[in-house]
Structure formats: structure tokens, C-alpha cells
Design goal:
With 748 residues, the protein is α/β, with parallel strands linked by helices. 29% of the residues lie in helices and 23% in strands. Helix 6 (184-195) links the parallel strand 9 (173-176) and strand 10. The relative contact order is 0.06. Bound molecules: adenosine monophosphate. Adenosine monophosphate (AMP) binds at residues 138, 253-257, 277, 279, 281-282, 304, 369, 371, 383, 386, 392, 397.
Amino acid sequence: DAVAVVFDYASLTYRVLNERANRLAHHLVRLGVGPEVRVGLCLERSLEMVVSLLAVLKAGGAYVPLDPGLPAERLAYMLDGSAVPLVLVQAAQRGAVPAREGVEVLAVDELAERLAAESAENPKSGARPESLAYVIYTSGSTGRPKGVMNAHRGVVNRLVWMQAQFGLRTDDVVLQKTPFSFDVSVWEFFWPLQQGARLVMARPDGHRDPRYLQEVIEQRGVTTLHFVPSMLQPFVEAVEAGRCASLRHVVCSGEALPPALVRRFYDRFAGPVALTNLYGPTEAAVDVSWWSCAREDAGDVVPIGRPVWNTALYVLDAALQPVPIGTPGELYIGGVQVARGYLGRAAMTAERFVPDPFSTEGGARLYRTGDRARWRPDGAVEYLRRLDFQVKIRGFRIELGEIEAALRQAPGVRDCTVVAREEETGDRRLVAYVVGAVEAEALRDRLRRTLPEYMVPSAFVALDALPLTPSGKLDRKALPAPEGDAYARRSYEAPLGEVETALAEIWAEVLGAGRVGRRDHFFELGGHSLLAIKLIERMRRRGLHTDVRALFTTPVLAELALVVGGESTELEVPANAIPEGCASITPEMLPLVELSQSEIDRVVAGVPGGAANVQDIYPLAPLQEGILFHHLLSQEGDPYLLSSVAEFDTRARLEQYLAALQAVIDRHDILRTSMAWEGLREPVQVVWRHAPLPVEEVELDAAAGDAAEELWARYDPRQYRIDLGRAPLLRACIAEDDGRGRWLLLML
Ligand code: AMP
């Protein structure tokens, strides 16, 4: 009955999650799912996502994550390549799945009736250690993404090792924020669920917004979460460490972890929080090596550390001979976590997964990582750089060759190359250099149809010819830096009004983009998620409040201006609130209301504790004015009063419930707000710092029959009037139901 998974305001206990996954699994078995059968999942982060992942595995099958945000062409390629007979979706995502002959699309949120008839017992999956667990697609250098096939035994080894190493407890809370099409999500999902801990699903898009992350960490008491280093950086800078007091363990992987970031991390987060650097490719069950980062030893390089259980790391030369300690070579991975290979790509599999010359086990293979590395004398490995044209941009693994292949198919492109250019900010952007008569905008639109957003270059530079070295090879160093016009511009329209003008100024500054118009598109001007975070911060400072998600849904300046609010949506005491413990409140402290000192004194006198207990005074919203009007108009009862009765088996549980309710009241300003109007020129709302919930004990007449009925009758909302001058605007009445030995709570 412990909570297994939380999403927004909904949660599932272990029992319910298991039963729901079992019913779906039985249904999948009926549809033919079993070992080696692949099932596509095209879902947004949600409870259904967790149920579906478990159900596919419980049915013995393997899941293929299909991110609903990918272009249809790419999804179609993945559907064909993975030969899934079935795709599970949420009804809302149905449209994202391209129609394919022989592929059934099932909306898991529309199956309730069919699933009710299925057994809730654990199915027998029939899966073996070597059975396929999932296929995750990653960028392919030859122009098409490739599906990596991972088996159960590798994943299980990885999870069991992680538990032995870091000991997740049942009171731990793990945040799931990595999109499920990236393998970090595998441990985010299954580690907490294997250990009886709590899995908290970040809202879709939430992973990009440090403010949102801070909020979930604080509200949900998150203890464990993952970042790619380039996202850890803005998080460390943006959050108030004090609000992340629950954090115990931050795990990094995916890119080299800069030592300066380790130091900054420990400077910001004092207290018992650990930072771990994990390393590994999708081709070897998520991670194969680990390093515990201590503040003291963050020297010049943070090593990727030592191998996990049942895993061997080798640094080899071109003849597959081990090189001496300290000498760079290519990193190879051996052991149980090595994947089965690339789905339907035998040649590519043979090239990257080679026979393991160091193993005595028949058929053992090494995965060739393409990473240059070296051993340190202390037995840890240092990552040096890539040996090929695979790059990481904000944690996303990208083969530049795949983007080039897509560009070459565009009509008019005679030659091209794509590079990841380091910006002055230390940040990287993709720049395409194109020879031929083609418009940047047309190229961008074309690439968008086949590539994920993070693979579409930010800038397109037209060249007469690609620069060559004397030996005739591409001279990357001679490629010019992109100028302002390389970022495709919409035709210029001057910003209108104050908000648009302010936004245009901030965009120009953050993007380094010169003149910005109202039709300009943040991401087409070279914006990306890190710059988005910077932009939101700058906007906040100028009183323009929004969140990163809004920028992703409304990236055009004029549209963003419409959703930008003048007020913070966060639940924090506003900076201009009356200082705590203030003895007197003056009109200057209340810029929003037009009250005289004597009126303010009157308001303050109505609050128990006086000025020291007043957090803020401000005008009513129009809707609240309406509520007040109807309250004053009616003589009896209150048209807006709601009441409900709840039943508890013991007095102690009732008390616990009231204590929890009080905690909610303490947390939310609006629940500690009363109204004042008498003797004032304008009605106001008053936020109290402390507003204890009034609890009244009621003696029921034992002989009167139904106790709940009697309680209802005493506090009939048709007659009862609530005192709007007293926060919280809630009343609790409790009574013992003698006849049934239970406790009743009436809330008004
Ligand atoms: P992916 O398959 O997305 O996990 O990408 C794997 C590649 O990311 C590796 O081959 C490395 O190039 C890089 N990588 C992953 N983790 C680290 C790390 N901790 N330090 C440096 N590079 C890393």
C-alpha cells in the first residue's frame, strides 16, 4: 500500500500499479506479446507510461520507446525497423503514430472495460536473462537512427549493482525526468520500483526547467535525480539550495563532467548530498563505470572511474592490444551488460561488437565505444574525447554524419558538412555549411521533417566551396563562424507594445542576435534549452513571468508576449511582502491598495496577533468581489459554501488528517487569506502568516439515529454563514459516532 508512483496530483500504490500492469500484461499476452516480441510505446510522461512499461515486460516482451514529439517520418522509420505488431498510446497521442499496415494502435486509457475482465495476478512472462528487454534508438552515422537491443541480464546486473552501491531506501524519492527514449530513464523507472521507493514523474517538458525542478524537489521531497552535466550547470546556478534540502544523491552521466562544476556543486549544496559520475553507452545497459565525486579530489579531470559488476573495461590499440597505464587508446567494454547488437543491422553490429579476445566464455563480445581513454595508476579510467564525429549537445547523442546525410538529400545541396561549434559561453551549437543554391529556411523545414529538434542545426552558412587542406581533406578549422544572418530569420516586423519591445531586447541580448522582430522564432534564432533558461531568468528580472515550457509551446515572440504574465506563478512570499514581525504597516508598504493609515490600522486590528501576523494586504480579484457581493446579499447561508463529511476509524487518524490539512494551509498563502471590507473604501484580502484551522467538537445526540445526517443538519450550508474575516475560510467540526465506533469530520 505504499505509494509507488506520483504524477502531478495522482498517484498509484504498489498494489494498484501492479494490478493495473498485470491486467494490461495479460491483455498483451492475449494479443500475442511474449519473449522477443517488441511493443512500441508512444506516450508522454504519465502514470500510463509506467503501467505500460511494466506491462510489456511482464508480458515477456520488449519495449520500444517512441517519443511522440519526433517527426512522423522518423517514427515511421522506427516502426518499420523495429517491426512492432502493436503500439500502445494515450488516446491524445494516437495522431502522432503514423499508420502502418499490420501495426495495431491501442490507447491504454481507453481499455478500462476490456482490462476489467483480465486477471490482476502476476503473469508468467517466460522471459529469460538473454531475452530482449528494450530497443532504444540512437543517432546513426550512415543517415538513419539505429536501434540498440538490450537484454534483461545486462539491465538487471546494472540495477542490482546500483542498489548494492548506493542503497536506495523505501523512503527515497526518485525523480523521473529523462525522456524514456534515452536509456538513463531505465534506472530512473526501475531502480525505485524494484526497491519499494517512490517514483515521481516530472511533468512532460519539466526536465528542462530548473525552477520547476526545484519546485518538485521541494514539494515531493525528491532525494535522488539525474542530470547531464550541461543541464546540471544551470540547475546549480538557478536554484535556491535551501529549497532542495531533501536531495541526497545527484547522478551525472552522458558527457564529461567538468571539475569546476563538481566544485560549484559542493559549494552550493552543503550537507549530506553526493555527486556521482557514471559513464556508459546505450550499447551496454546504460552505464558501465562509476566515480564518486569528492569535492577535494576534483583536480583537472573527473575520471569515469571503475567498472561496475560483471563488466570489464579495456583500453586497446588498433591491434586490440592493451596499452600501458597512462597511454591513450580506444575504450572497449566487455561483460554481461554488452548489448545484443543493432536491430536489423548485422554489418554494423559486427563492426562495433567484436569477439572478446580476453574472455574464456564462448561467444563473448566487446563493444567498441569510439571513446578515447586512458587508465590512471589508481585503477580509474579517464575519458579523453571522441574518436569519430559523434557529438553530445546538451546531453543528446548526435552523429554529425546523420545530419549531413539528411542535408545531402535536399534538392540543390551540392556539398555540406555539419560541426558542433563551441560558443563563447562554453555552450555548443550545430552549424551546417552548405554548398549550393538553397535557402536556410527551406533546409531547416526539411530537416525538421526527419530529424528530432535537437539535431536540426541552429545556423546554416552558405559557402561557394568547402575549405580543403593541401592534402584535399575537409579543413574544419577553416570553416567560418556563422554570422547573424546564418540564423534563419522571418521577415522583420517591429515589436508592438511594451511587452514585445522588452522581449525583443532581451532576446537580442540572450541570443546575440541583433535586431529581433515580433515574428521571430526563439529556436530558429539559435535558441535552445540552456538559452531558454537564461532567457526566463532575464525576463523574470524585468517583471515578465513565464516558464520554460511556455517558450517551447509559444516560441514566436508576439505569441510569447501574450502568455507572459506580470505576476509570478510561484508559491513564494513575494519580495515586496511585509517583513515578518513588523510592528506597524504603512500605506507605502502596500503599493497595490489605496487605503489610508487609519483604514490599514482597522484591517490589522481585525487579525489576531496584529501587524506581526499580517503578511500582505491587496485588492480582491473581480471573481472574489463577486463572491463577497453574494455573501453580503444573502441573509442566511452562503451561496459559495461547500460542505463534506468524512469518516475515520480512529480519532488518531482524524487528528493526522487535520494536521496534514494544517500543513497545506501553512504552505499556501491563499488558504491563509481573509477578507476585510467594513469601514474601507475598497475591500481587500489579507494574508495571515499563521491561520490555525478552527476545530469544533460536537456532541451528537446518541438517540437521534444517523450521526452523519445529524451533523449535516446542524451545519446546513443553507443557513450556516462563514466568517469571511477569519482565515482560513474553512471550519472543521468533529463528532464521535458512538453507535458505530467511528469519527466524523464535517468540513465547511
Ligand atoms: P549514450 O549512448 O547517449 O549514453 O552516449 C554514450 C557516449 O556518451 C559515450 O560513448 C561517451 O562518448 C559519452 N559519455 C557518456 N557518459 C560520459 C561521461 N561520464 N563522461 C564522458 N563522456 C561520457
